[in-house]
Design goal:
This protein is an alpha/beta fold. Helix content is about 50%, strand content about 10%. The longest helix has 20 residues.
Length: about 400
Amino acid sequence: MDIRKVAVIGAGTMGASIAVALVNSGFQVLLKDVNQEALDGGIAKIDRMLASLVKKGLPQQEADQRKALIRTVENFKDLADVDLAIEAVLEKMEIKTAVFQELERHCKEETIFATNTSSLSITEIASHLKRPERMIGLHFFNPAHLMKLVEVIPGFDTSDETVSRSIRFAQSLDKLAVRVEECASFLVNRLLGRYMTEALWCLEEASAGIEEIDKAAVDFAMPIGPLALRDMNGADIGLAVARFNHQEYGERFKPAQILVEMVSRNWLGQKTGRGFYVYDPETRKRTSVNAELEQLVKDNAVSQSKKFTPERLFLPMINEAFLALQEHVCSLDDLDPALMAGLGMRMGPLAIAEEMGLAECLSELESHFNLYGERFRPAPLLKRYVRAGRKKLDRRRTSDTKQVLLSK
């Protein structure tokens, strides 16, 4: 059954961006929120996104035609004939489950229910439904109308038909659709979290300064440094995610104390005008490094044990990639493309590991493990590759792995 009409529930920044991604591919969209004021705000965001595309060369007539595909609604009963409903509301379990229970009461039997959650359990959301087999995660990356990745995450009871229809749908948006088995923070954000937190540990021990860390990451593989990215997303959000991952995965995800301190001082980043950097209150453009934070780091720095290198930022990400492969979270062939599409990396963590040399990678992890402890404990799968004398990852097994994942 083809997907033609799609509902987007939640007209915030993410919902509006998903709506634009949909109309860019010709889908009819019903945009729903709790009242007209919220819907008007969503339409204003959509107008800005389409205007930006016009500035980049999209004909105004085409932009107008795309916007005409969007209709706003306030009532769930208006969503009765949609083929797919994508939820993009607040990241709270009780709100999301209430949305899907309403959708189940009003939508047709064949409708697929998708959540855009970046971390909450698909299985838990589905457990509140009478038909959990039609529940799936479709995790778009912000901004959804520009970013190429969609993580497709089945819950425990998601049917094979729902998975295959969802993958085909994401591909029809000209996205890289990567099947990810359910785990905390899924694939890309899970690996990103290890890299982001290591940048904070490097700063906290004063092994490198704010600008040095960001420049090293950009020169090495990233489009933006980890500290500048944290300022964009917000230190408060970063701390909440770090604490969630610490709870789910244990000591290797322990948040750095500097992040706790920044939240307590309301140094949240761009939205408060001060984070790792200082920002102009009107334009939100960066004006300088946060000198107060740099002084705080110097005054409280733990002893430096190892010279800073850009590789240190990426070693935890590489190690987490091997742990994810070990858990069959995704196929080997999908991992690097997902990280490159989702984060804009010029080279994925597995390619970085191969370029460094798997044996060298393991040696560095073991050296850091001896100094810093649990967050550098080497993944057993990486050890196996090195013990087998492999210099490259074994992609001969990838097709078999994909078959196993698709048959689950």
